[in-house]
Amino acid sequence: MCGIVSYIGPKEAYPIVIKGLKRLEYRGYDSAGVALINGDELNIYKTKGKVQNLEDSVVDKNISGHVGMGHTRWATHGEPNDENAHPHLSQSGNLAVIHNGIIENYATIKEELIKRGHTFSSDTDTEVLIHLIEDVQVNENISIDEAVRLALNQVIGAYAIVILVKNEPAKLIAARKGSPLVVGIGSEPGEYFMASDATPIVEYTRDVTYLNDGEIAIVKDGKLSIKTIENVAKTPFIQKLEINLEEIEKGGYPHFMIKEIYEQPKSIHDSIRGRIDPSRGKFAMRSIHEYEDKLRNIKRLILIGCGTSWHAALVGEYLFEEFARIPVEVEYASEFRYRDPIIYPDDLVIAISQSGETADTLAAIELAKEKGATVFGVCNVVGSSIPRMSHAGAYTHAGPEIGVASTKAFTAQVSVLTLMALAVAQIRGTISQERLRFVLSEIEAIPNLVEKALKTNDEVMKIAEKFKDARNFLYLGRGVNFPVALEGALKLKEISYIHAEGYPAAEMKHGPIALIDEEMPVVVIAPKRGMYEKVMSNIQEVKARKGKIIAIVTEGDTKVREMADHVIEIPDTEEALTPLLSTIPLQLLSYHIAVLRGCNVDQPRNLAKSVTVE
Ligand code: G6P
What we know:
By secondary structure, the chain is of the alpha/beta class. It is built from 20 helices and 27 strands.
């Protein structure tokens, strides 16, 4: 949520910053802005809307300079207009800041600063922060580095910030608490990059260091130093980036979303690769082995996440209950964190997150840890905050997901949760070796079956054409495919702005059935394994009310075909694994409907991918 990028070094900063902003645009696209230092000038250009608007607006402006920073905004405080766009200036104009996060006590600080003669030109919390820093600097007559440190000690909330100093052009200051920030060490002397994630950096260097909460990074006269806001010096831990440039480009596809949908055979394969040995019925998952004793004795499992990750958690509930026979609760991280939940030391909490940075999920983990639970993270972004905060966990290895609507991250999460559930089942003796070996061999086949499921694309496109103007959609599923119905509906809502609801099929008669008429498309997930007969009855109920049925069935199915208006076939597999296949045509359906409606598929309105504010 909000993307920040900055550069200091021998190259021209603007091209690096603007390209970086385009790579970070998935984090928010309400407004965009840059600040560049050129000699003794500090030039700021900012505008409402996308990075492209900004680029168009600077055509005849002075954009040179070797120090620069840029921001793409997802609005929190203040509407998305030019004034509220970042960067923001201090009272004297000597300092400029970009910020990702929320300063919660900004109103009190602002009031105080106004009394002291400060004037503000935006409604943002960010402008208050940079005024505060300058105020501290002037009043205490101290260096800007020290003023940043002292001011941050007064601030409540979350931030990743970068500051340019007009009268110290060889300096760049950054700090983080609760919002991510990575520093890239360039190949040329004195060259550094600072950004919300590694995507703007990978083109130039693979050497990075991730700032920890409460750390300040200062580049001064070509040298990087890091200290905490308590003024303790830190040695940067430099690590190699694992992502490649091709992974963050569209590679010939019109949108990231469709590229990512088609990457699923590989992303699922990468998520299970090296972790299972079907012929011997064995697992190689470090966290599971390390915590074997704990896992044998846990009394309850709590799965937490937000958005699509919460849907993966719901699938996980079925998997852990079926295989490992552990009572499971699934919680929205945002609710869990404020509910004073009852947590015992023998609870295991699994936090699921693509980005590893979702603020509510982070806060929920903190709470669970405080109450003594063991916390595992299932995350996609290597080096992100959630894996670092968790006791243990497993990465999903889906590769960078850029489309705001999550696709390959979801199936990777479900894949990893499946392995975890089976591994825990083995430890607890709730699954026979024979059955385990069989399920593992079925999992091994999934990437090829996803490849087959993707072949439904042409069929799905025809259905999309037919229903693209529908005003409502209903998605129904049962058992492990109920969360898939929720996820299918979410995908459609997110990117095509059609109202859609996911429901457990049998619950339809308690409400949504009232909505059904000849206009209403109803997507029913009806694979032959898993309450097939029951789902057929639900289809009859829709049919009797003239609803239009789009059914996802197992290949070769004849019974549902007789009743449905449209049928999409997916390959057969073990019931617990069907979400990995049934979700594919639903992703394709939402994608094609959104494209046909002319929607911005990768950057749907009002949404952002990495939600670093609560
Ligand atoms: C946002 C994204 C969703 C994502 C959710 C949780 O709403 O648009 O795609 O599912 O955040 O994010 P996480 O990174 O924690 O999975």
